[in-house]
Design a protein that fits this description.
The chain contains no helices and eight strands. The chain is mainly beta. The chain starts with 8 loop residues before the first strand and ends with a strand.
């Protein structure tokens, strides 16, 4: 049986999804192989006004992988009305300080992300 890594804490979040870039923070708590928390980020769409959003997330650690799904979202700041699609992150746990992988939203838009542990 492999040891479950401790991924609880604050993570710096960066993502490139083709239509723009997202940057922010992921806050995770962990109980066994289950994680939950929230991700707060600024979404910078190409040629559009940036907006800030938070998503509440739940996930599971399986061996050296993590799957995180957003279950709810709130707009923190936006100059215009937006409709947002929930995101999912499927990552490889490189170490207890680095997770890298693919993201996908409910529209099927894929991206590449990185979480770097801050605390």
């Amino acid at each position: 049986m492999s040891k479950i890594l401790n991924l609880a804490g604050k993570w710096k979040y960066n993502e490139d999804y083709g239509y723009g870039l997202a940057n922010g923070e992921l806050h995770l708590s962990q109980e066994g192989n289950k994680v939950q928390g929230r991700i707060i980020f600024t979404d910078n769409l190409h040629n559009e006004e940036a907006f800030m959003i938070q998503e509440f997330v739940e996930g599971v650690i399986i061996d050296n992988k993590i799957i995180i799904d957003a279950v709810e979202w709130d707009i923190i700041h936006s100059e215009k009305e937006i409709i947002y699609e929930l995101d999912s992150w499927n990552g490889d746990i490189v170490s207890e300080e680095l997770i890298q992988g693919k993201s996908m939203d409910d529209q099927g838009i894929e991206g590449r992300f990185e979480f770097k542990k801050m605390i």
